[in-house]
Design a protein that fits this description.
Layout lengths: L1 H22 L22 E7 L6 H16 L4 E6 L10 H7 L4 E5 L8 H4 L10 H15 L7 E8 L4 E4 L7 H4 L3 E3 L3 H8 L3 E3 L3 H10 L4 E4 L3 H4 L8 E4 L8 E7 H5 L3 H33 L6 E4 L2 H10 L1 H13 L4 H16 L5 H11 L3
Parallel strand pairs: 1-2, 1-3, 6-7, 6-8, 9-11
Antiparallel strand pairs: 3-10, 4-10, 5-8, 5-9
Helix pairs in contact: 2-11, 5-11, 5-14, 11-15
Length: 375
Amino acid sequence: MKRTAFIQVLIASLLVIALAAACGPAPAAPSENTSAAPAVTDNKTYEFTYSVFFPPVHKNALLAQKFADEVNARTNGRVKITVFSGGTLTKAPQVYDGVLNGLSDMGMSVVSYTMGRFPAAEMVELPHEYLNGYVSTKVANDFYNEFKPKEFDNVHVLYFHAHGPSVIFSVKKPVRQLEDLKGMVIRSTGVGASIVEALGGKGYGAAQGEAYELMSKGTIDGSYTPRETLEGWKQAEIVKYVTECPEVGSTANMYVVMNKDKWDSLPPDIQKVFTDVSNEWIEKHAKTWTWYDISGLQFFKTFEGREVIELSPEEAARWVQATQSLKANYIEERDAKGMPADQYEKYLMERAQYWAGKSPTDQECIDFVNIEFAK
């Protein structure tokens, strides 16, 4: 009996196994962990447009393209940025509004191209004894990070950069003393226009991309601008004289910003990539600006009949005296708006001195550019 019962049980077990094999494997039991897994964004691609006012061959436009390529590489292709240089998407004065209104997702342009819109950031452009573009670029970023002015609250700021101290270009008439500037029409914007007028000239508001044509046609007599434009914008082809005036040299504060909604749509890991690359690009622009001041003058001197004019100490003191009230007026205007302008000014002077002591040598900037743009 026992043997018969055992055989019956064995046969029944074999039948169950056979049936299970015929019907396929049983479904896996559900996992006890029912919490949602972290969102995977690797398969999503974010596409952005980037409006840059510099011409395509300018090294700041090339740095914008390099920025786009670097972000693309570090996100494994998840972010694709199309750069529109030369103002082809939005003209220089319209870049900021273009970012706000969605004409572009990112933008690079100049604070003083829309005077009055960025009253705090405009103070960076005042003469602060900027040694070179490295110093002014570092100061511009320090200023924003220290005070976070509300004028940029409707975008996401990536970084700033700024050129070295402006000089006087003239096409026909050399400027050797204050009296020579009287009545001359000089392209200038923002703080630069105020300086030109304090020195006796007549300011003419126009973006850098218009300066070459305006000078070549005789609409203006010259420009108050960094040496960089001699090469970067090919103005050495028509400019005959460069008057060095670093004692009253202003800068142009340039922003790189992103549409706030587009920024907010990005996952944290991609936001971090943008932030990391932006911080690295501050240094690249800073060294490139210093290189441009050096290279711009060298390029200028390759043309026949060109002259670089150095002011005597006595004449430079006259220029400083003529512009002395400029800062006071700017501070007073901003104080009236409830802004801590005195604090701004003290901070800017302190940071300009600090970074002057940290600035790389001219040769280090030259070596950097030779390597960076050989890639």
